UniProtKB/TrEMBL annotation:
Record's protein name: Phytocyanin domain-containing protein
InterPro entries: Cupredoxin, ENL_dom, Phytocyanin-like, Phytocyanin_dom
SUPFAM superfamilies: Cupredoxins (SSF49503)
KW Glycoprotein (keyword) present: yes
Keywords of this entry: Cell membrane, Disulfide bond, Glycoprotein, GPI-anchor, Lipoprotein, Membrane, Signal
Annotated family: Belongs to the early nodulin-like (ENODL) family.
GO molecular function (one): electron transfer activity
PANTHER family named in the record: BLUE COPPER PROTEIN (PTHR33021), EARLY NODULIN-LIKE PROTEIN 3-RELATED (PTHR33021:SF185)
Every Phytocyanin domain range: 38-140
Species in which this protein is naturally found: Cuscuta europaea (European dodder)
Keyword Transmembrane helix included in the entry's annotation: no
Cell compartments where the protein resides: Cell membrane
GO cellular component, one term: side of membrane
Amino acid sequence: MITMGEEKHYCDYFYYYFSRKMVFLVSALMLLSSCDALEFDVGGSDGWVLNPSESYEHWATRMRFQVNDSLVFRYDEGHDTVLEVKGRDDYEKCSTQNPVNKMDDGNSVFKLDRPGPFYFISGNRECCLKGQKVVVVVLAARNENSTLPP
């Protein structure tokens, strides 16, 4: 038989033991969820410039972008902008008319919120025509619970 004092001691131990486990579990889950999405510096260390050391096309093909990842465009504020354009046609023509999104703060973060292609060009049409543009193809979101088919 457990006395009243022993019961309180047992409850204190139980509470202490499981609250520590819960804190660890919540911390681990927060760490895992923060690892789900990645940030990519467009153009690598060169940033969003006219003549990067590696072409944007080559850079983008080396990367694996997934839903919820972010692109970071680093450039001189006031000297350039980044435009998200509607599709391949606007991308190929470097059309700066009617962009889907315009970024102009010099350190622009763009969240990839869906699978499929995203088209980005320089807001300076001449720079775009000289190659300052990139297509990013986004895969479905990372899912750590997914299983491979047999």
